[in-house]
Amino acid sequence: MRLPTDVEDYHPHMECIDSSVMDTVLRLTEELDPSSFTVADARRALSKDALSPEDFAALLSPAADSALEEMAQRARSETRKHFGNSVMMFTPIYTSNWCGNRCAYCTFNAGNRIARAKLSEEEVDAEMRNIAATGLTEILILTGESREKSGVDYIGMCVKTATKYFRSIGIEVYPLNHDEYRYLRDCGADYVTVFQETYDPERYGELHLGGPKRVFSYRFNAQERALMGGMRGVAFGALLGLRDDFRKDALACGLHAYYLQRKYPHAEISMSLPRLRPCLTHASDTNPVHERQLLQVAMAYRLFLPFAGITISTREVGKFRDNIVQICATKISADSHVGIGGRAEEEKGDEQFEVSDARTVLEVKKALEKNGMQPVFNDYVRT
Length: 383
Known about the structure:
The protein has 14 helices and nine strands. It has helices at 21-31, 39-46, 53-59, 68-83, 121-132, 152-162, 178-187, 201-207, 216-220, 222-228, 246-263, 291-304, 318-324, 361-370, and strands spanning 86-96, 138-143, 168-172, 191-197, 233-238, 268-272, 309-312, 331-333, 374-376. The protein is an alpha/beta fold.
């Protein structure tokens, strides 16, 4: 089977589900060009209690730049209303950087000659034990996208190990079928993060030169399969800067979350804000999305999806992270290592990208408190 969005056929292991969400998102993204809206449209959107997809597009527009202060005031108010001044803290752990895909922008590209590594069960346990000693109770488990090197059983082992030390466990791995997500939920995973990278199918095909990731629609429907498998929450992200107009990817990403939330009202939805960062295959000057624009995207997410969590990662510098959690972000990582290992022993595999905020858990916690925010290590009770 091959859909018009896909560069190649579904692989035999890939599950195809009956869903209209992707068609709706791609159609509206085509119809609602952010560059066609005016500052009056943006201010009209800000006057409403609940935003439509058209209002969301207006807030993402270049014209809305002159209304950023009003957006910030409204975003701060909405965040306080639904989340108070609490900010969740977590950290990622990369357990493998083996990958079967050839993404033009990623260090883990299967064709890149980097130091490849995968943690053993004993090493996973040691790394997690050291992370837990910092006081964190939430962890995000990441692998490169290789079913061969990091099979579902391996990911399940990582999740089961995490249950010894953490109360909330997320996974950011290759897209899976709904029964595989159910297995990982039964192992102890709570939520699933999948970045679509870009929502432009043509650009997506240009950037993903080999591997199962070339099947656009299978990746798009990953969050829905995760919810079908019983996951508590799902997270969305577009890697801003991959497409010529990052606003269209932000629009599509928000619409993706919006329509899935309408279809699965019980699901916990959260948004991530990745943008291209320097790595082995990207120089430092290849980042067309500036901090002011990233902030605009985050505030538009908050106003369109008032109940959604918003995560700001260590891809961004500390000063920006300290500021955005006072406006609209609700979740922040700390003491991030994006190579393989590094907490219990020396790093044994190359990093995916450069970290911009290398502060420890204690340093991030103190910065939050200094700014009047409440660091929260856990708000979920596993039953």
